[in-house]
Amino acid sequence: MTEQTTDVIVIGAGAVGENAAARIVRGGLSVVLVESELVGGECSYWACMPSKALLRPGAALNAARAVAGSREAVTGTLDFQQVLARRDEFTSHWDDSSQVDWVKDTGITLIRGMARLTGERHVEVTNDDGATRLLARHAVVLATGSTPSVPPIDGLSELAFWGTREATSAKEVPESLTVLGGGVAGAELAQAYARLGSRVTLIARSGLLGNYPGQASALVGKGLERDGVTLLLNTGTQSVHDGGGRFRVVLSDGQVVQSEKLLVSTGRHPALAGLGLESLDLDPKGLDTDESGQVAAHPWLYAVGDAAGKVLLTHQGKYEARMTGDAIVARSKGQLDGPPERWSAFAATADTYAVPQVVFTDPEIVMAGRTLEAAQKDGLNVSETSLEIAVAGSSLHADNYEGWAQMVVDEDRKVLVGVTFAGPDVAELLHAATIAIVGEVPLDRLWHAVPAYPTINEVWLRLLEKYGL
Ligand SMILES: Cc1cc2nc3c(=O)[nH]c(=O)nc-3n(C[C@H](O)[C@H](O)[C@H](O)COP(=O)(O)OP(=O)(O)OC[C@H]3O[C@@H](n4cnc5c(N)ncnc54)[C@H](O)[C@@H]3O)c2cc1C
Ligand SMILES: NC(=O)c1ccc[n+]([C@@H]2O[C@H](COP(=O)([O-])OP(=O)(O)OC[C@H]3O[C@@H](n4cnc5c(N)ncnc54)[C@H](O)[C@@H]3O)[C@@H](O)[C@H]2O)c1
């Protein structure tokens, strides 16, 4: 067995592990990064990149159709082979060599294999060549990502259904697709496949996109139905069967939905099983970490990104990775002792305050910070202002532009704590909201942030006017 000592071991070379490792190397420490599959992880090969690559051509086509003049120039439908080929380019044909080059150029040591904790700061990596025993002088970082949660539906586990990996890497467009789960992944992939030509049925046991304000989710629901998606909301699933090579989904009301493929996208949980956490008296269902990612009972152990289970988004995981990486470096130099101060360079405070998120459907939903309900649940004294997006910029952007905006104000401090926009192409409006929330910009100063005319950003002015400024 080979043995190696390094300053820090990072397990998992997804976007988050890569960023943690790079930050630690930047601070002058040595890092071994361990990866059992592709360097770059879920986001690059089976999640963000391929799903957005599948959605973008449909959005571009629809944008042209939404404006008189360009609408008349659209005479065909999506070329699904070109769409899939472009998706393959964005996933580098599932070849991670360019990411491996980046890792090496950054000064990180990469070991391929499956890692497992064997004791305090000890990790064992196994691959086809045998095993390597690693010892970290300072810290071990778990950046192992998340695993799809499969609901206990009768018959489901016996069938070869699609998870998001299969849906984002498919080589053919199925004639029909049933999507189980009305979250972000389900909504995005339902629309992508409907626009590529599949007959899509989406089944959700509650509403569609239940984590977002109802008016925003309703606009997405309308968009999906316009694309031909059948929405079966507030509908339970009783069982799933093989109906002669087709999936046969029996709903709780007895209705049957049949399709060529079945996509199960019903959430994810931290990928912590098989890591040896039990030997440290830790629960593999989830870890208790502080704002620097440090595990409460074991100060040498950290968790970041999906593995930490706080926010399952690439950009937020990379943010956690920067904070954790810098905290490990600072602690190794005696510059940080105990938990980090909120909003310091070592604390991922925005995780609980101002997470920006985008649902890349058409229309889109973007949200930063808290919904009204979440803010009220947190005990804040909040007000809500909402309106339809109807400004010169939006009507120029698309004929019959339909959108909705909401801001949630902390009335005790007169600052924004939540902003949501829904409508075509609102994603680029999001960062202004994130800055206003993180910067705790007082509303009477935000009043001086003048939106350019004629852009969709003018909705900010309408919101502030309606609020009473
Ligand atoms: C369909 C879909 C679309 C998404 N779209 C978006 C989006 O548009 N924007 C966004 O921000 N987020 C999106 N997400 C979420 C995003 O993909 C995740 O938040 C992100 O990939 C998490 O990164 P990570 O590095 O924590 O985990 P991962 O990318 O999962 O990386 C973890 C890595 O650890 C490795 N690993 C695990 N265990 C071990 C072990 N024991 N030894 C060695 N290696 C190990 C794995 O092989 C993997 O490569 C999407 C998710 C899905 C499912
Ligand atoms: N644009 C993006 O940023 C993006 C896109 C896709 C995924 N993601 C991330 O990936 C994660 C996983 O996405 P997701 O859509 O699978 O999760 P999700 O948590 O967003 O949605 C899961 C959905 O499945 C439903 N569900 C759960 N159990 C069920 C059951 N037994 N039967 C029927 N429905 C059930 C839930 O009610 C929910 O609507 C998300 O947390 C999200 O952060 C992000």
UniProtKB/TrEMBL annotation:
Q: Which residues bind FAD?
A: K52, T144, G145, S146, D306
What EC identifiers does the entry list? 1.8.1.4
List of residues binding NAD(+): G181, G182, G183, V184, A185, G186, A187, E188, G267
Q: Which Pfam families match?
A: Pyr_redox_2 (PF07992), Pyr_redox_dim (PF02852)
Look up the domain of life of the source: Bacteria
Q: State one molecular function term (GO).
A: flavin adenine dinucleotide binding
Annotated Pyridine nucleotide-disulphide oxidoreductase dimerisation domain ranges read 355-460
Which coenzymes or cofactors are required? FAD
Q: Where is the FAD/NAD(P)-binding domain?
A: 7-316
**Which keywords label this protein?**
FAD, Flavoprotein, NAD, Nucleotide-binding, Oxidoreductase
The disulfide bonds in this chain are C43-C48
Top EC class for this record: oxidoreductase
The similarity comment for this entry is:
Belongs to the class-I pyridine nucleotide-disulfide oxidoreductase family.
Q: Name the chain's protein.
A: Dihydrolipoamide dehydrogenase
Q: Which organism is it from?
A: Arthrobacter pigmenti
